[in-house]
Amino acid sequence: MSNADLFYYVVFFIFGALFGSFGNVVIYRLPREESIVKPRSYCYGCKKQIAWYDNIPIFSWFILRGKCRNCGAKFSFRYPMVEIIMGVMFALCYHYAGLSWDLIEYLLFVFGLVICTFIDLDHMILPDEFTLSGIVIGLVGAWLNPHREFLDSLLGVLMGGGFLWGMAYLYWIFTKQEGMGGGDIKLLAWIGALLGWKAIPFVIMSSAIIGSIIGLAAARKQKAGLKTVIPFGPYLALGAVLYLFGGQTIAEWYLDLFLPGLS
Prior knowledge:
Blueprint: H1 3-29, H2 59-63, H3 78-97, H4 101-123, H5 128-144, H6 150-175, H7 182-195, H8 199-222, H9 233-258
């Protein structure tokens, strides 16, 4: 690894941690329909604004031992965890894309995926502000980015959204119950818009496997059996991240094996 690469890894990790700090605000406030700009970050216990030196990503939480300096209220470990995850994701984006147009798209993509993942875990919703905007940005990016094709992006939207919509419709026909949220459909369409149609089979398969394993574990723990409800968005997001950071090779091998000439 060259000194220049090390420098950029550090820069993008710090950049990601800063966006992770802002992401924590979005994760908490957006589902509550609060402004993500005003007021500044404050303690939800004593309502006092948090000083800038107590709001340094990652470090402040550990320095303060996860407590408010003013009232001692506990701050969740999720705050530094989101910042660390975002920092690692941004550094990986640089690793796989370098300084390119793709890097800009990947950074926006993982930023949105991390936020949507935690909102879905908390509230079982995937905000349209990210999913629908992501579809538009993905299509526009494909039109502008010389490394991507617009048709590939458009097919990704149709295949991703269409597949989950079809599954949800069939489930409703046989059970008369909703089994797949509209947010998941729009999320997979967004994933297809950025990664293209070839990513969809990999994302669906990997997310289904991981989701099934965790779902079965949750069902056993909650003793609710098949009635256990888990958000599927985080597993779709994880599948997209796996594809983005190395899974593309596996996906192309799979397509070559079963659909030669399409990869």
